[in-house]
Write a structure and sequence with these properties.
The structure is a single chain. With 329 residues, this protein is mainly β. It folds into two domains: 78 residues, no CATH class; 211 residues, Autotransporter beta-domain (Lipocalin). 5% of the residues lie in helices and 68% in strands. It contains one helix and 21 strands. The strands form two sheets. The protein has a twelve-stranded antiparallel β-barrel with strand order 10-11-12-13-14-15-16-17-18-19-20-21. Strands 1, 2, 3, 4, 5, 6, 7, 8 and 9 form a nine-stranded antiparallel sheet that branches. This is DUF481 domain-containing protein.
Length: 329
């Protein structure tokens, strides 16, 4: 048998070591380490492809640190950067160009520029059950569309509600809500929003407001979030009988979180406005909801709405429950 060529053996050994050193690795909080090729890292999961198995999806909360030797486009604090990433000894951190960086600030991005748009949305139809004893039939349909870059986010929501009782129309309303967020940094944002509501009964009443103010994101990456926004609002109330305008300071809380690998979503939107008129103490709107994914696109939803107005004349409160079926896209 011929003696092996020492140079050839050394080259093969270095090639093998080089291949191992180029492998990406993920260190989990339970002490496990997975090596392979990182395929994606979005707002919920990191996906890695080991050489010995199919792709593995890992929740963000389970990751202690990770590293990759491939310079790739990463979104860091909403800015695309082509960087190298090494693991860190600190739990929940990585070394980005030798700087300690929280994993929560990172998203692997397939975008080619900061101005590239992404689109998402949903449409939903619901059966409403109110908290009274009347025998009513209701139709509730809504849509939710979002278009965003790393620094701008547009959101448009529309809702139609139609209610009859003993073949008499009791409710026929249209709502539209538009918001534009300028994402200043990881936490700070500036919001401009417009809201329109029309009651199409015998006496048509239209409500509209425009708002502007700063906001702060306490936590969240992408879909998960907890935002607090303070705005100055100008209201218009228009009917066939009268037209009225007023100003108000308002605070808004937007919460959304995904559970069990994104199968369950919980969300809440709360707004309370304090008009600059002594006859109205406050106006509040609260929405609490759940979404359960049946498939990747189809979901069941439960929504609970409370609208309340407190004035020196009277106190009014409307409560509505919604059970619906929706489609994500």
């Amino acid at each position: 048998m011929p003696n092996p060529n020492p140079k050839l053996c050394m080259a093969m050994l270095l090639t093998g070591l080089s291949g191992q050193s180029l492998a990406d690795s993920v260190l989990l909080r339970n002490g496990d380490k997975i090596t392979g090729e990182i395929k994606s890292f979005d707002e919920e999961h990191l996906v890695i492809k080991p050489s010995y198995s199919p792709k593995i999806s890992i929740e963000r909360s389970a990751i202690k640190s990770f590293e990759t030797n491939h310079n790739q486009h990463w979104s860091i604090n909403r800015t695309l950067q082509n960087v190298s990433i090494r693991s860190s000894d600190l739990d929940g951190f990585v070394l980005v160009n030798n700087r300690q960086t929280p994993i929560s600030e990172l998203v692997y991005s397939d975008r080619k520029s900061d101005s590239e748009w992404r689109y998402s949305g949903s449409v939903e139809a619901a059966i409403d059950v109110t908290s009274n004893t009347k025998n009513t039939q209701k139709l509730h349909a809504k849509s939710d569309l979002t278009a965003e870059t790393l620094q701008w986010r547009h959101n448009l929501k529309n809702e139609v509600r139609y209610e009859t009782e003993d073949k008499t129309t009791k409710r026929n309303t249209l709502e539209a809500h538009y918001s534009l967020d300028y994402l200043i940094s990881e936490h700070w944002l500036l919001r401009q929003e417009d809201y329109f509501h029309e009651d199409r009964l015998d006496t048509s009443i239209r409500n509209y407001y425009a708002a502007l103010g700063p906001g702060y994101r306490f936590w969240g990456v992408g879909r998960d979030k907890l935002d607090f926004v303070v705005t100055y609002n100008h209201f218009w109330i228009d009917s066939q009988i009268f037209t009225y305008q007023l100003n108000a300071w308002a605070t808004t809380i937007n919460y959304k979180q995904y559970w069990f690998d994104g199968v369950l979503e919980t969300y809440a939107d709360l707004q309370i406005a304090f008009p600059d008129t002594p006859t109205i103490d406050y106006i509040s709107d609260v929405t609490l909801g759940l979404k359960y994914l049946l498939t990747q696109q189809i979901y069941l939803s439960f929504k609970y709405d409370i609208s309340e107005t407190m004035s020196s004349v009277r106190h009014t409160q409307n409560t509505t429950y919604n059970l619906g079926l929706g489609v994500n896209f």
